[in-house]
Design a protein that fits this description.
mainly alpha, two-stranded parallel sheet, 18 helices, elongated, disordered C terminus, binds arginine
């Protein structure tokens, strides 16, 4: 039998393989809410503009409410012969209310319908993702506040560079995530134009009111060009680009979790809830959740690449190629959502080992820059010369097999007569981080100010920065320094 929605000129139905390659209902059924909302808005507008009778409109809206309830309740039978969510919903509506259902498709096409549905879906998803990003940021900010004074090694090239505070390190991710939320919201702003009423590609001869449907669906305005409206997938591309960057950030953080939780680093302990054991090595606590978050960028960026390639070279306007947008996008956005949730859980549960971090922070002559800075500040030695002198001091410490704080004043004077005992006070990692109070620097005082700023931003409420020296302990058992 030919398709009852478009089969008028067809003598036979599609080949089984045709049906299989053509149908999207297997994945686009998740657009049912948006599809029904779009149809309600369209029917309402058609009645307001006198294209549809109020009786038909009422029957359509009541029937769509029943269809919605059936899908939500799980009693709806999706049919592959009906290809996609649009025709599945409309066909069921016809079974329920008869001929009036056939008038719903006046002045629209599946081309503007699918663009509208997908935009609404992406818009909802952005809202959820942004909330999730904010939740993760808040978890990090709370952690940063607790760890404002915790000293850890700062790395460049993964080589010990200068000591930093753990709170400062965590706040770096808060900044990245802030930009991620901004990018998602930026995409949302640009996507918020309604394609509905663009019809198949050229617009429609009916005197429809596109502003009305745009308003009804929460769009800022209707799209201004019908050809563009039905063939534009920038909104999902942009969202996937923003999602890819966010996933890349999560991947970096996940990698740090993996490194930090290793026995060799031992900076943090991930909770039992986010690790797994090994069936052969009883000692293992594998950071699987972190590893999977590290990996998810693969499919998220893959979706962006895949859709860019699908869209490349497509002539205007709609082509069926564009149906390939959904599966990859759904998968990518689901993956980002899951990654954000997993990260939030891990951040909330992790136990830092403050002693271990501090010990590691002083390894590798990490306060050498502080010596050079002291020579500049106190002895007025040009930085380049100070750098050279400090290099000799480091070499001496290396030779004596001790840290910089293990050198005596005689050792320093052996390198340069002008150095006096005041040098000792800049050698500790505490002094090093406390001194870095330049705006954006790692000093504990800065961390508290920045954490308070983020809290205000994320919760809408002003927070007093907690005074230094009031570090919260207790909940993170084995990590305390005291
Ligand atoms: N299932 C289609 C998609 O996802 C809907 C639009 C189909 N339009 C058409 N003229 N065949 O793109």
């Amino acid at each position: 039998m030919s398709n009852k929605m478009w089969g008028g000129r067809f003598a036979t139905g599609p080949d089984a393989i045709m049906e299989e390659i053509n149908a999207s209902i297997g994945f686009d059924q998740r657009l049912f809410r948006q599809d029904i909302a779009g149809s309600v808005a369209h029917a309402t507008m058609l009645a307001e503009t006198g294209i549809l009778t109020h009786t038909d409109r009422d029957a359509i809206i009541a029937g769509l409410a029943e269809v919605l309830a059936e899908i939500e309740g799980g009693s709806f039978t999706f049919s592959r012969a009906l290809e996609d969510i649009h025709m599945n919903v409309e066909s069921r509506l016809r079974e329920k209310i008869g001929d009036a259902a056939g008038r719903l498709h006046t002045a629209r096409s599946r081309n503007d319908q699918v663009a509208t549905d997908f935009k609404l879906y992406v818009r909802d998803t952005i809202d959820t993702l942004v909330t999730q990003v904010h939740t993760l940021q808040l978890a990090l900010v709370n952690r940063a506040e607790e760890e404002a004074e915790t000293i850890m090694p700062g790395f460049t090239h993964l080589q010990s560079a200068q000591p930093v505070t753990f709170g400062h390190h965590l706040l770096a991710y808060v900044e990245m995530l802030g930009r991620d939320a901004g990018r998602l919201l930026d995409a949302r702003k640009r996507l918020n134009e309604s394609p509905l009423g663009s019809a198949a590609l050229a617009g429609t001869p009916y005197s429809i009111d596109r502003n009305m449907t745009a308003d009804e669906l929460g769009f800022d305005r209707p799209t201004a060009n019908s050809l563009d409206a039905v063939s534009d997938r920038d909104f999902i591309l942009e969202t996937l680009a923003a999602a890819s960057i966010c996933a890349m950030h999560l991947s970096r953080f996940a990698e740090e979790m993996v490194i930090w939780s290793s026995a060799q680093f031992g900076f943090v302990r991930l909770s039992d809830k986010f690790t797994t054991g090994s069936s052969i090595m009883p000692q293992k606590r594998n950071p699987d959740a972190a590893e999977l978050v590290r990996a998810k960028i693969g499919r998220i960026l893959g979706a962006l690449t895949s859709l860019l390639v699908v869209m490349k070279g497509l002539p205007l306007a709609y082509s069926k190629d564009m149906q390939e947008d959904k599966e990859v996008a759904f998968d990518a956005l689901d993956s980002l959502s899951l990654s954000l949730a997993a990260m939030t859980g891990m951040v909330g549960d992790l136990v830092p080992n403050r002693e271990r971090m501090r010990a590691s922070a002083s390894a590798g002559f990490s306060t050498a820059t502080d010596i050079a800075d002291w020579l500049v500040r106190e002895l007025n030695i040009p930085f380049r010369d100070a750098h050279h002198i400090t290099g000799q001091i480091v070499a001496l410490a290396e030779q004596k097999n001790c840290g910089l704080e293990g050198l005596t004043i005689e050792d320093f004077k052996f390198i340069d007569q002008r150095i006096d005992s005041r040098i000792h006070k800049v050698l500790t990692v505490e002094a090093s981080v406390a001194a870095r109070q330049s705006y954006g620097g790692t000093a504990p005082a800065n961390v508290l100010v920045q954490a308070a700023r983020w809290k205000t931003e994320l919760t809408g409420q002003p927070h007093d920065p907690r005074p230094l020296g009031k570090k919260k302990h207790g909940t993170h058992g084995d990590g305390g320094v005291e």
